[in-house]
Amino acid sequence: xxxxxxxxxxxxxxxxxxxxxxxxxxxxxxxxxxxxxxxxxxxxxxxxxxxxxxxxxxxxxxxxxxxxxxxxxxxxxxxxxxxxxxxxxxxxxxxxxxxxxxxxxxxxxxxxxxxxxxxxxxxxxxxxxxxxxxxxxxxxxxxxxxxxxxxxxxxxxxxxxxxxxxxxxxxxxxxxxxxxxxxxxxxxxxxxxxxxxxxxxxxxxxxxxxxxxxxxxxxxxxxxxxxxxxxxxxxxxxxxxxxxxxxxxxxxxxxxxxxxxxxxxxxxxxxxxxxxxxxxxxxxxxxxxxxxxxxxxxxxxxxxxxxxxxxxxxxxxxxxxxxxxxxxxxxxxxxxxxxxxxxxxxxxxxxxxxxxxxxxxxxxxxxxxxxxxxxxxxxxxxxxxxxxxxxx
Length: 392
Hints:
It is a single chain. The protein has helices spanning 3-8, 18-22, 27-42, 45-48, 86-101, 106-125, 152-162, 179-187, 212-223, 237-255, 264-272, 317-332, 343-348, 367-390, and strands spanning 11-13, 54-60, 65-71, 131-134, 167-173, 191-201, 227-232, 277-283, 286-296, 299-307, 335-337, 352-361. The longest helix is centred in the C-terminal third of the chain and has 24 residues, at 367-390. Helix content is 44%, strand content 22%. α5 runs antiparallel to α6 (106-125). The protein folds into two domains: 3-197 and 355-390, no CATH class; 201-352, Gcn5-related N-acetyltransferase (GNAT) (Aminopeptidase), CATH 3.40.630.
């Protein structure tokens, strides 16, 4: 063990050391590691999430164990999810979002496609996906403790020595959610690279209750006597199969296959370990919608949601599951990060738009490896203008 490792308390953990190492950390950290990271160490990532190809390392810090996701860059994988691939986020998903949100502006789509073609070639050449994703949960939105709880500078130095050919990346840093993470990462030399616009709901402050949409959605729910919500604490396999189908209907069939393609086994790990908590909407004995939420240090996300798209549209299943999630966040006193997309819908329900960033350290890499991150920063200037101009 080097001097840096021993002085800072930062150390990679071998598989044989995991059980002993976990015993000294808080229970919530133990639960997260067991439910999320250990299965990814025991099997390949693609066996659990079809479109995620990463190697997982566990890193011991003075306060908790972190998961490191290292994308496998030997082969370019089609439909690789943006949760584990900068190329998937900035090139593939960027192209998809541009076509979806600005489809009527033909001239802009032609220009954007040309930019994505050029950017994609440069990113492949410069090994854009050769990164270390720190503390990456492999959800659409990443969560952290409210304040940095380990020495970022020491960890950064450690990772540069362990992975000298990889950029170091923290996903999903929104300054309004994590002001201290944003400030400390920036002060330690991390680049601020625009990721997306997200919608935050001040549920404890009742932001949703000041909007007319809540009254309309509540009246809709009151009419649905045939529907009922329950918590699902110990889902059986049949229920999980149904929940996964509803997730796939929404995220993969309606939206993009670049969203994480979770498997049934991975869903079992997340729910049976209690990491993801489920609320389901029943029509008689059939689950027709669900919301799955994850909470960390005062912030709630619902990375798993879905509804039966064959159900009559007038029943408003998406409206009902959104309202249920907002009320759950209010009851628990949590800030609700509603992620990106459906901007008008979320604004009507009290959510406010804020910019989210990836924080990137690449100073130790040669210029040509830094080039993709430099280009994405340049492209983000007009992107942010478009996002704000069109309320995306």
